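Request:
You are asked to prepare a plain-text protein record giving the amino acid sequence and the backbone structure tokens, at your earliest convenience.
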Amino acid sequence: MKTKTFFIAIICALTLTSFTSKAQSKIVTASIKVYGNCSMCKKRIETALDHKGIKKAEWSPKTKELQVVYNSDKISETEIHNIIAKVGHDTDKVKAKDETYAALPFCCLYRDHEMKDHH
């Protein structure tokens, strides 16, 4: 009887462990290169990422690095790149459409070498 109870306890423990591992593996942290210049860019990028499945997004104008924490069951990294490009910012994988980029405020035109020199 003790052996049967012991095996049932082990099976329950293994089952709970596997469920916990699956739940934790959904949350992913990624670092994405996102081009921009200033605090307006920062606000635009971070606001665009106020999206279902994204837990946290923080972009640094100095390093051009976006730290994003997201649930990979709800959104993919490719979708995150596309969201950023739709608001006019290039990433290391997706380029924003030229007309979207051109509509950015002058100080945010990161492809313009003159603007890069002023930031």
In short: The first helix runs from residue 2 to 25. The chain has a mean pLDDT of 87.
